[in-house]
Amino acid sequence: MSIGPALRYHWNVNLLGRAGLRWVRWQAERRVKRGAHGKSHILTPPLKISARTKELIGRHYLKGRYANLRGKVAWVTSGAPIEFLKALDFYLLYPENHGAVCGTTRTAVDICAQAENAGYSRDICSYARTDLGTMLSCQTPVGKLPKPDLLLTCTNICQTVLHWYRVLAHHFDVPLILIDTPFVYTETTDHSVAYVKRQLEEAIPIAEEVAGQSLDERKLKEVTRLSKLASELWLELLGRCRHRPAPISVFDQFIQMAPIVEMRGDNFTVDFYAAMLKEVDERIAQVIGAVKNERKRLLWDNLPVWYRLRYLAEFLGRHGVVIAASTYTNAWAELTPKMDPERPLESMARTYMYPILNRGTGDKLATMRQMIDDYRLDGVILHSDRSCKPYSVGQMDQRDRLIRDFGVPALLLEADHNDSRSFSKEQVANRLDAFIEMLEV
Fold first, then answer.
1. d(CA 415, CA 423)
2. Rg (alpha carbons) of the chain, rounded to whole number
3. Above 90 in pLDDT, residue 40?
4. What is the dihedral of CA 294, 299, 301, 303, to 10 degrees?
5. List of residues 6+ apart from 219 with CB closer than 8 A
6. Residue 190: exposed, middle, or buried by beta-carbon count in 10 A (0-12, 13-18, 19+)?
7. pLDDT tens per residue, range 241-299
8. Residues 42 and 85 reside in one and the same domain
9. Are 260 and 308 contained in the same domain?
């Protein structure tokens, strides 16, 4: 990197940008201390660390705006094995996380329309449409996304990513690495692990060539160690919701999961979750629950409805209902024991082959049943996500099994994770009212 771009990056990111983000964080923390964060008689105040969360996310996208000045950029799917890219000093962008930002800022529909106007169907995943719309129009609430030098996709979450990333590769004219993960019907096999590991070994020289440097095995082990530490802390945080009242709700988890998804392998992510765990433990000691009058506890299945998080939290909270656990947030925690920093490639192959979407629907049902017991839950809401078909497949049978075989009330709620055009406020309210009434019986 020449001196000019290096100075521009340092000035905008490390000096002006960091100072600006710290000022915003400081102001937010002052508002929380003064109680000026918008008091609610339903929900407790947000975690104090939430201001730091916004700072981390803001800094991540600020770095992205200038990332092409400093080094190489890789766009990656959310379930991809990224530790070797992190060890090669790539700036990593997760289009799904960017899609979630677009969802929470209510800009996703306009951006999706850009892709739809270019011929992409509304039946395609709304994350993909958001990303393709940004690709075509450069429209984004974060200012600017960096151009990728490399693309990495992994089929362990869905098959859509394969075709989605082929479009990106063609548009940006950059190399595409595909990691194919065999579906896990019961248990992983040594043959399957070796198959994925071989793909990782073949991917590394491609990434090294783009990065212009060789992979340092010690650095790879360190990145893997930090990923494991952050995942362990995230697992502990989720486990704290076994307490009654639950100190945080799943709606809090949805917001606070951003670092574990897109900032794994960094020291500051470990520090962040350690601080968050400390604050959550303080809430438990003070018997502070996410919902002020917790009476019923639920499980959430599938992606969040990003553009309606506050609405759903308050609607349920009004009835003393807290969603204390989620298969989605749990997916970033349950694989922690499989990570082994001393054998990074083999453990990556095993870990990233085992996400919930790469396992059978019966396995997901068993996971939900275990979580119901562990968190002492009273019912389940299954978000039937219009454009995330792999996560939604089998939900009707899972709902019926939960009710018939386990005696657990379960509701199928139709929406979309990022496209608000598939959300009917009246229909959702009516179904939730009826479900809550059933829980009270």
1. 5
2. 21
3. no
4. 30
5. 87
6. exposed
7. 999 999 999 999 999 999 999 999 999 999 999 999 999 999 999 999 999 999 999 99
8. no
9. yes
